[in-house]
């Protein structure tokens, strides 16, 4: 393989990688609740943020994560449009929006439920678009 062939192959690979990242769907949707529009997961379940999280770092692990499951991401997921992928303490990946890790709430049973909003003396909030 010649140097120019290698360069062409690398350029094509980079172009394809950028194109697929540019057209990747955001990891959330927008849903309607009694409190207005909120971010939801693919199933329409409300998403939340936690005041104790630091920018890009989840403070909700262990038993907390049982009640507040992380919005899981894959290592291959591409960040963009205000979304990033963070690494949790257990090594798994989680989506964050504007630096804030995203969670569902185990006690929400159907799309539109917002029972976690204000939980733990107001530390949990609905994630807004």
TrEMBL record:
N-terminal signal peptide: 1-24
Keyword Transmembrane: no
GO biological process: alkane catabolic process
Keyword terms: Signal
InterPro entries reported for this sequence: Lipoprotein_repeat, UCP029720
Pfam family, one: Lipoprotein_15
PANTHER family associated with the record: BLL4220 PROTEIN
Name this protein carries in UniProt: Lipoprotein with Yx(FWY)xxD motif
UniProt organism field: Bradyrhizobium rifense
